[in-house]
Amino acid sequence: MSKEIVKIFDTTLRDGEQVPGCKLETKKKVEIALRLDELGVDIIEAGFPISSPGDYKSVEEISQVIKNSTVCGLSRAVKKDIEVAANALKKAKKPRIHTGIGTSDSHIKYKFKSDRKTISKRAVDAVKYARNFVEDIEFYAEDAGRTDNDFLASICEKVINAGATVLNIPDTTGYCLPNQYAKKIEYLMNNVPNIDKAIISCHCHNDLGLATANSIEGIISGARQIECTINGIGERAGNTSLEEVVMVMRQHSELGFDTKINSKLLYSTSKMVSEIMGMPVQPNKAIVGSNAFSHSSGIHQDGVIKKRETYEIMDPNDVGVNESSIVLTARSGRAAVAYRSKKVGFNLSKIELDKVYKFFLKFADMNKEVKDTDLPGIIKQALI
Ligand code: KIV
Ligand code: ZN
To answer: In terms of residue numbers, what domain contains 311?
Structure first.
């Protein structure tokens, strides 16, 4: 079955870099951008050029070196922002301006002290202005997750008429439930008359741990772009994690979607971003955490040693992890001890294994983990 391609819009260098302590100098941002291009992301959001001279320089340099991906710069619905973004993107092979404004009643009333009519006009004017510089314009309706659907549909229709090619529907506060986000996208697909002239993009935050689920529901409902970051880094609880949405689509081929991502580069890219940003990845993080393919309880280890698929739904090689690991702890069984002993050169008979296992448990109860380097000593002690 041929799959529909969902575009991957990576915002590690913009929404991800907004995390306190993750700010990067241009050289490091360029290094990450080159890796994202190699990974196969469709769009790299390189920064918010008007925000600082450093960010301007980063967007400018990334624009010069990226060969395949579209390079995108963020702006508010403000002329000066748009001009500065356009300038920074001048050398990009495929430039995109990402402009927009808050559309929820709370943003309109408290942030802008304005009204829906004025906000609609600002949105349209911003898109029209940006079209003077580049053809590829993405419009974001900030806080779309809490925006009234009728108003959202009307603003989407107007910005498409003004020249927007992509409509970003952010769940800025990570509030929506998957079925609510799905209904919002479905509503837009059915109530924006010119929706065939643009694609909808999901931009979900993870405040309730639902960013991946919401993004997947979004594409099932008609969106064709997902905005995400490596390791899910981003404001507060983070953004949708790139590696998660990519692997959800790969593992659930019945959905009929795929991406252009080279999944074998996922693990090394995760490590690279974590190291450069100084942001550790939690060990139990899906796909790229250090425990994502490691097994430590006896029952699971026995199953994985007999057949990997008993406790693993994906092949670690597919995401660039060499092999599943069998970690020895006091919860491990004989199968795991025999397996790891063999790896370090001891092919134990059943009787030998029984003896070694007793010594192993004593040692394991006193230590968090039993390393390969501990095994020869345990075996020698047990077999003398
Ligand atoms: O979360 C959000 O609404 C954003 C926009 C600026 C796109 O990051
Ligand atoms: Zn965001």
So the answer is: 294-382
